[in-house]
Amino acid sequence: MFSNEGIGAVLSQYIRNEEPIIRYFSKRFGKPERNYCFTRKELLAIVKSIEHFHHHFYGWKFLLWTDHAFLRFLLKFKEPEGQIARWIQRLQDYDFDIQPRKGFIK
């Protein structure tokens, strides 16, 4: 999740129909990042969050919840370019599925 000021993420795990929080992550955007479009900010939030939780995710399949459904399409885009291509390449080391989740507050 992100705002115009930065990104935030929550790492949780389903255990017996409950979803306890394991860790939080947040990071302020730099001046250039504040000017990114909505989709670029959301993708950056995902890249930074997954890399922050690398030791939890690497080698395991996990579920990424987001309210930005376009990201599923973007990550499967056949010919991404520039910064988007580099971010997508960084995510290819991880095994995850994207699920829509409504109701996140931005």
From TrEMBL:
Residues 3-94 form the Reverse transcriptase RNase H-like domain. It comes from the Eukaryota. The keyword Amino-acid biosynthesis does not apply. It holds the Pfam family RT_RNaseH. Keywords: Endonuclease, Hydrolase, Nuclease, Nucleotidyltransferase, RNA-directed DNA polymerase, Transferase. The keyword Transcription does not apply. InterPro entries: DNA/RNA_pol_sf (IPR043502), Retrovirus_Pol_polyprotein (IPR050951), RT_RNaseH (IPR041373). GO terms for molecular function: endonuclease activity; hydrolase activity; RNA-directed DNA polymerase activity. PANTHER family: PROTEIN CBG26694, PROTEIN NYNRIN-LIKE. This is Reverse transcriptase RNase H-like domain-containing protein. It comes from Araneus ventricosus.
